[in-house]
Amino acid sequence: MTELLQTLIFGALIGGVYALMATGLTLTFGVMKIVNMTQGALLVLSAYLCYSLWVHFGIDPILGAFLITAPMGLLGVALYKLVIERVQRIDHGLTIVATFALAMIAEGLIALAWGPNTRATTPPYFNRSFRIGSLVVPQAQLYACLLAIGVTVVLQLVIKRSWLGYAITAASENPEGARLVGVEPVRVGAWIFAISVASTAFGGAALSFLFQFVPDSQDVWIGLTLSVVILGGLGSLAGAFAAGLLLGVAEAMTTTYVSVRWATAVPTLMILIVLTIRPQGLFTRATRQDLAT
Amino acid sequence: MSEQDARPRQRPSKWVAGRRGIAAVGVATLATMVLAACSSSNSGSSGNTSGPLKIGMSLPLTGPVADVSKSGYEGYRLWASQVNASGGLIGRQVTLKVLDDGFQPAQSGSNYTRLITQDKVDLLLGTFSSLLNAPDSAIAARQGMLYIEPSGGAATLFTRGFKNLFFAQPATTTDLPNQFVEWVTSLPADQRPKTAAYVTQDDPSASPAVAIFKTKLEALGIRTVYNETYAPEESNFDTIAAAVSHASPELVIHGAVATDGVQFVRSLEKVSFSPKMLFQTKSPSDETYPSAIGTKNAQAVFTSVAWSPQAKYPGNAEFVAAYTKMFGHAPSEDAANSYTAGQVLAAAVKAVGRIDQKALADWLHSHTVDTIVGPLKWDSTGVPQGTMLLAQWQNGTLQIVAPKSAATTQEVLNLKPAWAS
Which chain A residue shows the shortest CA-CA distance from B295? Predict the structure, then answer.
C-alpha cells in the first residue's frame, strides 16, 4: 500500500510539472490552433534566464520566474508580430514550419549565449523532501506542482472572467463576428502569445531546479508538452492540468509495476489510444467542427 | 579522302560483333571495378603528398552531448596546434576538417562519408560515444581508412573484424568493472557489501559494463536486490530511486551516460536513500558533477576513468599546462582522450613516413605508443591492452585509488557518508 501511495504521489507531482510546462502551448494550440514548436525552446530559454539570475545574483529560480515574466511576455508579442501573424497570412499551416525553424535558431542562439555545458540551479529545496510517515514528498516537485496550479487558476480566471478573456474566446470562435463588436483578432493574438510565452517562465524555472539542461533539452519537452495538450483537449487549461497528472501517474505506475524501460513510451501510447477512441481529447466536448472534420 | 575511307563500310559479322560486344562489356566492367576500387578504398598511399594534411572528423558539437564534444574538440585543437608548432606531420601542416552531427548517428555517418569521398581528407579521427563511433567506424572500414577513436569503448564495436579501428583509451568497457571488483574482493568479508542494486541506461557502453559488474559481484556472493534498465530518454528518476530505496541495497552500481548520473543521485537524495557504496560510470568524471548534486554529496562516489591529470606519464603534465593556458580552464577526460587519439595518429604517421592507411594500421597493430594515458598497444581487433583507473571523489577532488601504480592517494573511503542535505 505504501508503495502504491508513494508511486501516486510521485506521479501526481511530476504530472503537475508536465502540466506547467504545457500551459503556454495549451493556449496557443487550443485558442489559435497554432502548434507553437518554440514552446520547448522558450522553456529552456526561461530555464537559462533563471539560471543566470541564480548564479549571478543568487535569486531563487521561483522568484526569478516572476522577474522574467514581463520580458518573456514581450518576446511573445515580438514572436507573434514578426513571425506568426505574417506567416498566418500566407498559410495557417505554415506556422508549424516557421516555429520549428525558430526553435532550431533559438537553440543555436542559446548555445552561443550560455555555451553547451550542462546547467542546473540548486536552491536549498532542490534535493530535499517532506516526509509523511514513510512517504516522501520531494519539495522541488511540490513547489513546481503548486506553481502549475497557480498558473492554471490565474489563466483560467483571465480567460473566463476578464474582458480580455471574452475577447480571446470571441476572436478564436468567430473572428468576423469579433471584429463587428470591436475586437481585433490580430491584437488578441498578440495578447495570447504574450500570456502564453510569459507563462513558460514558470515552467522554465521548474526545469532549472528539477533537471539538468542543455540548449537542446527542448527536444524532450516539446514532445511531452504536445502529449499533454493532445490528451487534455485543445484549449482546455483544466484539461491540460488533468492530462498532465494522468500522464505523470501513468508513467510512475508503469515504472513501478510494469517495467522501467516502458515508462518513456507511455505518452506515445496514451496519445495513440486517446486519438483512436476520443480524438477531441479526454477533457473537452466534441464540437460541430470536430464532427465535420 | 583515303581509299580505305572511300570503301563502303561493311557490317561486321554476328560473331565479330558478338566478340566486340563481350570485349566492350568486359572492358567497361573492368574499368568500373578499377574506378570503384579507387574511389572506395584507400588502402594505398594517398594521392596528395604536398600541402596541408587534412584530418577529418564529425563531432556532436550541438545536441545533448555538446559539452563533452566541446572539450574533445579542444583536445584535438591543442594537439593540432602543437603538431604544427613542431613542424607538422611528415613535413606537412595539419588542418582539422570538422563537421557537426548534433549527436545524430545518421548525420554522423553521412558526415564521415562526405569527409572521405567529397572532402578527400587524408586521415580520420573518431568522434564521441559508442552510439556514433559504431556506424562511423564501419564507414571508415568500408573505405579502407584508419579510424582512431577517442571514445566508444563498447565491446561490441570490436567484434566486427575491423583491422583499422583503434581505441585510444587504456581499455574498453569490458575492463571497466575490474578495478572496482578487485577492490571489493580485497575488503575483509565483513566489510563487503551484502546486497547490490544495478540500474543502467540502455546504452551500448553502460549496460554491458553493468552486466559484467553483476556477474562478477554475484560470484563474490553479493546478492542482487534490484536490476533495471531504463530508456535513454528517461528524465524522471524519482520512482526508480524509490524502488531502489525499497530494495535497500548496500551497493548501487549505476550505468550512467550523461545527465542521468546526476538526475539519479538527486532522486536518491530526495528519497533520502544513501547507499553505503555508490559506483557510477561516466558522470562523476564530469567537472560539473559535484556542484550539480551538492559538493559534499560527491564524497566517496566511485567511477572509472581513462585518464588522470595527476598521472606521471610522459607529456601529461605538459598537456594539462598547455590546455589550461590555451583554453583558460583545466582539461576534462574527454579532452585528454581526443588529445590521445591525436598522439596515436601522429606516432603512426611519423613512423610510417607516408599516408598509407593499411601501413599505418599495420604499424599500430605491432607497436606500443606512449601517450598521456600511458603506453597503449592493441590486439588485432583494436582493443587496447591496458586497464582503466578506479577513481573516487574525496574532499572535492577526483582521486585515483587503483591500480596502485597510478594511484594519486593511498586512502580509499570504504563507506559513503549519508547525503549532506
Answer: A122
